[in-house]
Specification:
The longest helix has 21 residues. Helix 3 links the parallel strand 4 and strand 5. The chain is elongated and about 65 Å long. The relative contact order is 0.07. The protein is α/β, with parallel strands linked by helices. The chain has a 5-stranded parallel beta sheet, sandwiched between helices. The structure holds fe (ii) ion (FE2) (2 copies).
Length: 366
Amino acid sequence: MLEQNVEHCKKCKRPNLGIGNVMLVHLLADSVTVVGSIRSILEPQFKVHWSLLHDNSADMMRPHAMIVAVELHNVEKIETLRERLASFDRSKKRIFLLPTKTHRSIAQAYALGATGILSFPADKQDLTGELIDRSQPPASSPSQASAFAGAALLKSMFSAATSGQAPDVKGVESTGPQIVDSIAADGLSSWLDAVRNYHRGTYQHCLLVTGLATDFGLSLGMNSSDVDRLYRVAMFHDIGKSRIPLKILDKPSRLDSRERQIIETHPTAGFDILSSNLHISAETLDAVQHHHEYLDGSGYPHGLMGRSIPDIVRMLTIADVFAALIERRPYKETMSRECAYEIVCSMAGKLELSLVKAFKAVALHR
Ligand SMILES: [Fe+2]
Ligand SMILES: [Fe+2]
């Protein structure tokens, strides 16, 4: 079936995978109807070779990118897909198209080597954008490399939490220093750009908070063990969102009161996920549970006030609020760092004023 006219270089006779400027994409799908709908989006801009999931006689090639459009709720299909994917180069982009995006299907896709996940039916702009803009691993700077390492770690931690397994705590110990070093070398702005350009959703948010909290510590001249404490609490702080339905997390409009109630369970859910893990410190557990508490008692889940909120949690909360404001979302303009800092300043009484003042350098200048 895959005799689909692979062109060859006239000089070296090897398969010409980049035909002219056309990128070669291999599509693996579970029905010809799905194949047809995706080809209609991609051709002729991309050269699409395709095979069906159960056609293991198909010759495999070395495409620039793979698209997988297979339903992931069926155990037998997942096993077949795993076997088929073993023949493809793991270093290439693998975009999974999911008819229903749930934590479980997303975790399954990442376990199968997904590098990107989109909805099916696919939106032409999203799919072609994913193929073109990120067709090469963009880790050309320390910031980009450490952001990719951080995102991979977050994906594995969220996948583990979703499937009831223990998150990879040791991974934070190796990735955290890489993030600190890259921010120290490249500067915070470079880190923020790398994260906002290449990462999305909750992972983008957690990476932004980690960079901001880490740089907050660096800007204050904290010693390295205190900076380490900051990246630890930041990387884990929203792990409880792995228990929140994606339709709420990714909702493009304002949450209603019931949805707001559900999302406000994430600090307690995060505590539950991590509390039995012997490698998690009491400080990290406290930060996970209380990063939405405000000094005036108006936060959640416990309405803590003043001194009952430790300094490290106060710093994390400032980084968290600021990160949420400057995130890049498909449905809203990215807020400037100046406007975001003004909003943080307007939260006097909720956030500690001296820390907010100290955060100014991080927010605006670094
Ligand atoms: Fe949170
Ligand atoms: Fe957060």
